[in-house]
Amino acid sequence: SYFEAVQQQNEWDCENLENNVCACNDDDANQQGDDFDEEKCLYDCYTKYGKEEICADNNPYNDDEEEGEKFEIQDYMECQQWEVPEEDEERKLEEEEEEIEYFLGPYCSNNGGDIYLGLFTDDACTNFAAEDGSGGTSVYQELVGEDLPYSYDTKQSVVAFKCMSCQQPEEENDGDNNDDAEEEVRIAEFCENTYQNSGKCESGLGIDNPNENACNYMEGIKIVRKNGVINSSGNGANKTATIFIGIFVVAFVLLAAYVFYLRTKLDRASINLSE
Fold first, then answer.
1. The whole model's pTM is what?
2. What is the pLDDT of residue 240?
């Protein structure tokens, strides 16, 4: 799935930072001082490259008591029940008396360009926990004391617009195996499955027996994304169809005018006969 591919790429990025960039190994080769802390060194390195939320299990500069349970986005890709944190016992008892249940799940933003997590009060994730335009996250913030990850408040979409590499990350090889590794490029399973299940227009790839089943469909739509808004527009009006529509409209107007003329003439003839 998409999240498995993202997780695999993140794991490779973290390993690459730790092994090849951060230089935080606690050995004599790196000539670290007596007060060296490998965990803090790695955390500082991850922070420098914007990967602390992904690569670090916790913040070594905070006490263990301050570290909460890590939010797993994969658990809420379908509508799932969410339990109020145990720390807020008073609020939890009030909700149990009122029989309020909460559910977390994804929903599309109003502009159609983002997917956010929201807090709902039904198991189908259709009724927001608050009607203030926040997707129910204001209630989540009141209960937890922080913003709901991947919510409208954070402006972080569940699915990013950033392109993902389809090349399978390779582990480092020693010696003569490096040349062979450069020649063989492995494609990530996520990309293979996505491509196999998608519509194709391979006419411009220069391959034998190209699949062109979806060429007409792709030509018929144009997708333009501006500030997260997806606009669909046609490929332009068909000239032949436009001409025939114009002829039909003119013929209809002329026929209506002729009918009106005949009716007026008949009415005058009837008046003359009656006189």
1. 0.56
2. 80
